[in-house]
């Protein structure tokens, strides 16, 4: 009997110990037990997708336009006579300015009221600049006769252009105007000379009356050749530079009054 009592007490102790080893009841768990769970919060509106970055433009150069090519001016043939049926003529003087003969020629032209065209050599212009001013101030036309009076047929296109351009630049510097007429030494107009002449804004001028005064054939011969060959529209060639031109000066004093008395008028083509 005593042994059964001890076993019963031991069993009760074990049950009590087992109950004490379990987890303690959670009061909050008891309150929420059986309650309806709240639905999860609905998500807000979806954010718009981030824009994709613009592609980096390629560094490709656009094709550049080539500058327009300047068209060269068309070369004109030389003028050998004036388009006139009247007794209108042109007197031209080459190879100056000359410190001895040009002032005398200017006085003769002034005395007879004649305007002429002076085809000047650049080297002489550079050496006698004041004479160029005198020629221009007296109303005569100043024209280009190259820089050093070479045979242009023997020069390259570049050298020909240099002969003309240097002279034109200096004449414009001294007179304020670019020359509009050009004459090749000896009248030898090469294709290069005509092209450079046109490209520099000038026109070529030849002649129709040549008394060959440069060869100094004598005053009488120079005079007779001019009077025999002249006619309406003639362009007369004389020289005031390039050597002894005393025969030319004397011939001018002789034939100019004869032509004026015969009804001829003189012009300097512009």
Automatic annotation (TrEMBL):
SUPFAM superfamilies: Glycoside hydrolase/deacetylase (SSF88713). It comes from the Bacteria. Residues 37-56 have a biased composition (Pro residues). GO terms for biological process: carbohydrate metabolic process. One of its GO terms (cellular component) is membrane. Keywords: Hydrolase, Metal-binding, Signal. Residues 1-19 form the signal peptide. InterPro entries: Glyco_hydro/deAcase_b/a-brl, NODB_dom, Polysacc_deacetylase_ArnD. Its EC number is 3.-.-.-. PANTHER family: CHITIN DEACETYLASE 1-RELATED, GLYCOSYL TRANSFERASE-RELATED. Residues 87-267 form the NodB homology domain. GO terms for molecular function: hydrolase activity, acting on carbon-nitrogen (but not peptide) bonds; metal ion binding. It is an enzyme of class 3 (hydrolase). Residues 17-79 are annotated as: Disordered. This is Polysaccharide deacetylase family protein. It holds the Pfam family Polysacc_deac_1.
């Amino acid at each position: 009997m005593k042994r059964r009592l001890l076993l019963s007490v031991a069993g009760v102790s074990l049950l009590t110990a087992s109950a004490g080893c379990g987890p303690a009841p959670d009061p909050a768990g008891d309150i929420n037990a059986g309650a309806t769970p709240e639905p999860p919060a609905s998500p807000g509106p979806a954010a718009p997708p981030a824009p994709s970055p613009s592609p980096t433009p390629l560094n490709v150069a656009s094709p550049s336009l080539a500058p327009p090519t300047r068209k060269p001016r068309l070369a004109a043939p030389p003028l050998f006579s004036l388009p006139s049926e009247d007794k209108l003529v042109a007197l031209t003087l080459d190879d100056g300015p000359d410190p001895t003969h040009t002032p005398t020629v200017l006085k003769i032209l002034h005395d007879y009221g004649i305007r002429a065209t002076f085809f000047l050599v650049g080297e002489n212009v550079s050496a006698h600049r004041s004479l160029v001013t005198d020629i221009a101030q007296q109303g005569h036309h100043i024209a280009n006769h190259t820089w050093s009076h070479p045979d242009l047929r023997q020069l390259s296109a570049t050298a020909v252009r240099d002969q003309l351009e240097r002279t034109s630049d200096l004449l414009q510097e001294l007179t304020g105007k670019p020359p509009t007429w050009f004459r090749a030494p000896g009248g030898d107009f090469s294709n290069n000379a005509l092209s450079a002449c046109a490209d520099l804004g000038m026109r070529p001028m030849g002649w129709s009356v040549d008394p060959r005064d440069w060869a100094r054939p004598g005053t009488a011969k120079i005079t007779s050749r001019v009077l025999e060959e002249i006619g309406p529209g003639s362009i007369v060639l004389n020289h005031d530079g390039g050597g002894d031109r005393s025969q030319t000066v004397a011939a001018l004093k002789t034939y100019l009054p004869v032509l004026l008395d015969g009804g001829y008028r003189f012009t300097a083509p512009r």
